[in-house]
Amino acid sequence: MESSCENARKYSNSVSLQELRDSLAGFAEDRGWDQYHSPRNLLLALVGEVGGLSEIFQWKGEVAKGLPNWSSDEKEHLEEELSDVLIYLIRLADVCGLDLGQAALAKIVKNAKKYPVAANQTT
């Protein structure tokens, strides 16, 4: 089984939440969409995108990690739906004036205290 450090090496560190936030803010501003990007509207759009993401898994039953039995088209569709969810989540946090990255790190610390590693658990 892979450790969290080994798993983390598979992902690119080249894109930050700050970069995404700035790109999304510019994208919305360039198109005059800020007027529509209220917290409520962004939340509803996010919920819709989560629904689209759910549809991908709806009739598949359990899915193996790494999606070994999925076609490249299925994986690309999943990437697009996950990206839509991430985009709306980052935009919502930005419009609400929240630092999503810091909030996530604080939540991990809070969860670590709430759910400590059991003494007999192996890693």
UniProtKB/TrEMBL annotation:
Give cofactor(s), names only: Mg(2+)
Keyword annotations of the record: Cytoplasm, Hydrolase, Magnesium, Metal-binding
GO MF terms held by the record: dCTP diphosphatase activity; magnesium ion binding
Q: Which Gene3D superfamilies match?
A: MazG-like (1.10.287.1080)
Its predominant location is cytoplasm
Q: Which domain of life is it from?
A: Eukaryota
Q: Name one GO cellular component term.
A: cytosol
Reaction(s) this enzyme catalyzes, per UniProt:
dCTP + H2O = dCMP + diphosphate + H(+)
Task: List this protein's GO terms for biological process.
Answer: dCTP catabolic process; DNA protection
**EC number(s) for this protein?**
3.6.1.12
InterPro entries for this protein: DCTPP
Localization per Swiss-Prot or TrEMBL = Cytoplasm, Cytosol
Q: How does it assemble?
A: Homotetramer.
Q: Which PANTHER family match?
A: DCTP PYROPHOSPHATASE 1, PTHR14552
**Its biological purpose:** Hydrolyzes deoxynucleoside triphosphates (dNTPs) to the corresponding nucleoside monophosphates. Has a strong preference for dCTP and its analogs including 5-iodo-dCTP and 5-methyl-dCTP for which it may even have a higher efficiency. May protect DNA or RNA against the incorporation of these genotoxic nucleotide analogs through their catabolism.
Q: What is this protein called?
A: dCTP pyrophosphatase 1
